[in-house]
Amino acid sequence: MDKFTGDGIMAVFGAPAALEDHAFALVWPRWTCRRRWKAWERRSITETDAPLQLRVGLNSGEVIAGEVGSGPFTYTAIGEQVGMAQRMESVAPAVG
What we know:
Blueprint: E1 3-5, E2 8-10, H1 22-48, E3 64-67, E4 75-78, H2 80-91
Antiparallel strand pairs: 1-2, 3-4
């Protein structure tokens, strides 16, 4: 888990040490999250009458990962692949 971005979450796999199965490590939590999302959505509609929606952007590639900034807990990933994942998330159809 890298950071919370408003109502979003950024997760980084394969940093600081490369993972041989990085694609599987990336997709598995997304699949699990979507499965659990349905249960949370049913509860949300029951309790608030407002459906929750989930969008996911996944991308794989080389990034710059490390301590960025001067505050505590500043380890993150930056680069073209991070931006691409964010853009894919922003146009993905909502689940829910």
